[in-house]
């Protein structure tokens, strides 16, 4: 993308917002690509009582067990009937896309996100889930890798490797993205200045907050706040 190159590994995915310029540099093995109408996504969001802002996803690598299961099931179903595409397949896909939209809205990061659902990780990796819970409860704390690893009962090297394998992000990157999520409601609904929002959400400085926010959304918090008001 214009701001950064991304590399996706198995079961990871990215969501591109409308008009987001990007190009594919290389591909290995299978690529699974789905295009959803933004109006359709917004209609789904409104129907499940999410806010009225247009859905805008963060430019980040995601990995979520529910979405992986959805993709595997749909891909398998299409493969079974690819020689005989009929109305039943089209109907199946229509319903499947509604399911996907709900999963994306509820389990990925975007301006609409008010809480980051981690329930899907509970059965896959109870150790990682336990650390996620601890960091979410105390997200303002300046966590170290050693402190995270203690909760998981793993060495810090084992923990860091497992965390990235399960979530697609390093533990620290995951925590920083969660802090962004916690900052968004203040940004949209209060008059607090950007510095206070950044520090209140656990960022070491407003410049770190601005840089990460811009990397995720293409705008600084201040610029985006003006667009939303």
CATH fold-level label of the largest domain: Arc Repressor Mutant, subunit A
Low-confidence stretches: none
How large, in whole angstroms, is the Cα Rg? Answer: 19 Å
What fraction, in percent, of the residue positions are helical? 55-70%
Considering the protein shown, what is the CATH homologous superfamily of the largest domain? Answer: Homeodomain-like
DSSP, total strands? 0
Strand content: under 5%
H/E element string?
Answer: HHHHHHHHHHH
Question: What's the total helix number?
Answer: 11
What is the first-to-last residue Cα distance? 28 Å
Query: In CATH terms, what is the architecture of the largest domain?
Result: Orthogonal Bundle
Overall number of domains: 2
Nearest-integer average pLDDT: 91
What's the story with the biggest beta sheet? none
Indicate the structural class: mainly alpha
CATH top-level class of the largest domain: Mainly Alpha
Overall morphology: globular
Features:
2 domains; 11 helices; 229 residues; globular; single chain; Arc Repressor Mutant, subunit A; mainly alpha
Description:
The chain is an all-alpha fold and 229 residues long. Helix 2 packs antiparallel against helix 3 and helix 6 (145-152) packs across helix 7 (156-167). The mean pLDDT is 91. The chain has 2 domains: 1-113, no CATH class; 116-229, Arc Repressor Mutant, subunit A. It is 57% helix and 0% strand. 22% of the residues are buried.
Write the layout of secondary structure elements.
Layout lengths: L37 H10 L17 H17 L5 H21 L13 H4 L1 H12 L7 H8 L3 H12 L3 H19 L4 H7 L5 H12 L3 H8 L1
Helix pairs in contact: 1-3, 2-3, 5-6, 6-7
């Amino acid at each position: 993308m214009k701001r950064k190159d991304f590399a996706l590994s198995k079961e990871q995915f990215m969501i591109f917002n409308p008009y987001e310029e990007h190009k594919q540099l290389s591909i290995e093995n299978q690529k699974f690509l789905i295009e959803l109408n933004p109006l359709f996504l917004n209609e789904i969001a409104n129907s499940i009582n999410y806010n009225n802002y247009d859905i805008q996803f963060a430019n980040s690598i995601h990995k979520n067990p529910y979405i992986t299961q959805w993709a595997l099931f749909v891909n398998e179903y299409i493969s079974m009937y690819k020689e005989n595409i009929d109305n039943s397949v089209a109907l199946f896909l229509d319903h499947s896309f509604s399911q996907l939209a709900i999963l994306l809205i509820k389990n990925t990061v975007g301006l609409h996100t008010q809480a980051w659902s981690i329930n899907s990780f509970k059965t896959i990796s109870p150790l990682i889930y336990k650390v996620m819970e601890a960091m979410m409860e105390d997200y303002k704390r300046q966590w170290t890798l050693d402190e995270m690893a203690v909760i998981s009962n793993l060495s810090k090297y084992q923990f860091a490797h497992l965390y990235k394998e399960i979530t697609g992000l390093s533990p620290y990157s995951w925590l920083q993205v969660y802090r962004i999520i916690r900052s968004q409601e203040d940004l949209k609904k209060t008059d607090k200045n950007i510095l206070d929002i950044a520090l209140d959400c656990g960022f070491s400085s407003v410049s770190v907050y601005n840089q990460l926010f811009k990397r995720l959304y293409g705008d600084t918090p201040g610029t985006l706040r003006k667009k939303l008001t």
